[in-house]
Specification:
Blueprint (H helix, E strand, L loop, with lengths): L11 E8 L2 E4 L6 E8 L2 E4 L10 E10 L2 E5 L4 E5 L6 E3 L9 E10 L2 E5 L1
């Protein structure tokens, strides 16, 4: 996760496409990221990122069709919000405390799948 510089601490990365999703790796993300597409989801891998305790990484996904596939380390708490037709699948509990990844998933069709490494 890249830290925002002192010049603009609220930097938000925006990724847009009409058709096709986005593949995001932790080293290229800032504290806030927005992905938007007409058709296509987001494949996000945060396993190689050291998110500090108490920090919150926010990812917003907007699409008509497409879900979110998220990979996080075991110590990361995941908070899923938004409105979509599709559920949330989390393969295990996170440890108490630690950093937080907040996913705001807005779409017509598509769920959120969380895998822990």
């Amino acid at each position: 996760m890249t830290k925002s510089s002192g010049a603009d601490p609220r930097k938000t990365d925006v990724k847009v496409s009409l058709i096709g999703g986005h593949r995001l790796a932790g080293a290229t993300l800032h504290e806030r990221t927005v992905t938007a597409s007409l058709i296509g989801g987001a494949d996000i891998d945060l396993t190689d990122v050291g998110i500090p305790d108490g920090a919150e990484l926010r990812i917003t996904k907007l699409s008509l069709i497409g879900g979110v596939s998220l990979r996080v380390p075991r110590n990361v708490r995941v908070d899923v919000r938004g409105l979509r037709l599709g559920g949330v699948k989390d393969d295990g509990p996170s440890e108490p405390g630690g950093p937080t990844v907040r996913i705001d998933a807005w779409g017509l069709v598509g769920g959120v799948s969380i895998r822990r490494a």
